[in-house]
Amino acid sequence: MKKLNFNIHIHASPEKVWDVLWTDASYREWVSVFYPGSHALSDWQEGSRILFVEGSGQNGMFSKIARLIPNEYMSFQHLGEWKDGAEAPGESVWENAFENYRLSPIENGTDLQVEIDAHEPHADYFKDTFPKALDKVKALAEQ
Questions:
Q1: What is 2-141's CATH number?
Q2: How far apart are CA 45 and CA 19, in angstroms?
Q3: Which DSSP symbol is given to 43?
Q4: 29, 70, 122, 133: least CB-packed within 10 angstroms?
Q5: pTM to 2 decimals?
Q6: Going along 60-96, which residue ranges are E strands?
């Protein structure tokens, strides 16, 4: 697994960026860059399960919110594949991978840093796509 790091400066408060990242409507907008119709199903509490799914909700991956500090830090631990509406552990290239979001206040807004664990076959996809998703977060937060 390879660690990938992404960073973007956003002219908005950490609270505004946090809302864009994790509020359902805006979350759906920025993650659509990865796959149209993508969304998350969760109670958004630390330690809770979270499903990252495509439009029908039948396929995606199941994960856990490993750490949550509001307006500062979110860490997801991916646990396995979600197939046909059920957990399918052992079938995901993301299994036991982490995806971390850190928001730091800066003089004119927020520095958003994202670190993900990616398997080599998918690293190039994320290197290309994640910056586009973060540009979408920036645009939504700066509205």
A1: 3.30.530.20
A2: 15
A3: -
A4: 70
A5: 0.94
A6: 60-69, 73-83, 86-88
